[in-house]
Amino acid sequence: MNISRSMKRTRTICTFNSMEQLSSILEGLKLKKGVILLDRQINHVDVSRQNSPVRHIDVSLPGKAIIDSLKMIKDDETCDSFVVIGDQNLINYAKLTAMETGISLIVIPSSFIACNSSNDIVSFVEDDRLHQIRHESMIPRATVIDESITGLPGVKNKSIEIYALSGALIDAIAVCEIGSYQYDLCLEGFRLCIRAGTAAAHSQHDHDSRQQIATASHLLSLAKGDLSSTILDTAATALSHIGQIPYSTAAMILFPYILEVLISRQPDIFASFYSFFNEGTFSPSSCSAWLLKFTNTLVSPIAKQIPYSLYDLDDRDFEKKISIPSLERIAKITAESRCVCSYSTLFTKQEIIDLMERAYWGYQGRQEAP
Fold first, then answer.
1. Does pLDDT of 318 surpass 50?
2. Domain range for residue 251?
3. C-alpha angle 369/287/159, rounded to 5°?
4. Residue 35: inside a domain, yes or no?
């Protein structure tokens, strides 16, 4: 079986209480001096007893300023590795720094979505274009999956992230070849979401379930190392950038409107996927209804707290985060990315605008699912 570059070059460590084992992890990787980079917004991780120096990073600063500060930390501390504890943004900045400096990375994600970072990819939007950088030096030496760090506080945050992860796995399956290792990794990741998703989101003390969800996200990361870009991931990245909303919220809102189109474009893949979990006969409508029913279950206890459309997104001054004119910008970014080449039938800009308009007003989707 062929395996991705990420699977060849990275080590996966699933553990509890990783902070107590950090010294032995560094030693096992033959790294002599690590500096802990901790997202300043994180307050549930205790690093006070660590031997390694700790630097608190403000991820709200401009990206270039963050990367420059990480380069200075490397030079000042004369270290050979960064232990990155944070969300996707901090991990991406550390990966870009590693590409330029060669420093080794040990990644300890602080959210379920951030576990999807053990590959050689960094994607970002700049000047209304999606940029994707790939380089082997950005693959972490190790990714530490520890639910005590990954599990965000609050049922709402966890529910939205697990919903977004489930959608991202389905989004990735749509561009996999049936029977490929990428397909098998995504299939196993989604099986973990079905088995553990509800408990991980809503049970305060179910540590095993949260560890399984973090592992599912990590499997997606390994699969994506050799996959093309996908429409949900690209559109959510563009929406997150333009609306200044969390990626997981963007993916959650867009998923019901993109799902039907994915199934219609890749029926053979979804027939195989559906038959793995169901004994009944596949049809696009039955597959869509089954998937929406599952994802709805993840967020049903917090249904009154979450947005169902882009129109529902307000800022603190009750101004709309997403306007009608901005939909065309999002569609343009998505249509001009490589994701439109990943499917049997190409997406046009107008088709993506139509999807965005449905998501804006809330036409069909989650509320109408059985």
1. yes
2. 155-368
3. 55
4. yes
